[in-house]
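Hey, I'm writing a tutorial for new members on how sequence and structure tokens pair up, and I'd like a real worked example in the thread rather than a made-up one. If someone can provide the structure for the chain below, I'll link this post from the tutorial.
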Amino acid sequence: MSSKKHSDSVADLNKAYEENEIGLKGIVSFAVGLFFLIVITFGLMWAMLNVLKDYNKENAGPANPMGMSEKERLPAEPRLQGAPGFGVESEKGWVNMELGIPQAEYRELYKQWLVLWEHGKKDAKTGTVTVMPIDEAKEKFLSQNVKAKSGAEAEALLKSSHAFISESSAGRMASEKRR
């Protein structure tokens, strides 16, 4: 009787294991459905991206006032020589040194310093001398006949200029002397 009862069942009670029947039709139909679902989702996302790009172009407002320019986006000086934007600003304009040797920046700045030391610099708008050659500056200073201060005030100023605040005074008074 018991065998008749279980004859309609998939499980065979006379075996020590249960047979595993794979429904290949269900697996294939699921995989095909999943594939079509992915393709449809990809198509819809691509269409939405194009719509949003068009919307952004149509409704583009003024530029962001807080947005940084290309020059402001560069990292602070000094930069690596191979980095984009590496160079020096000179009187002739921007000198690009992106692919130059590591000493290129020093050499360019040294050339600019030599020109300043020898010829000086005048402001183009006002004509005021902003940088003067050293020899000319010495001559101009010595021609002014500047008198040095003397007396008790000058000696007190000299003494106070040599003293500095040390750690031993805990910042209360200038106690150490410079030599």
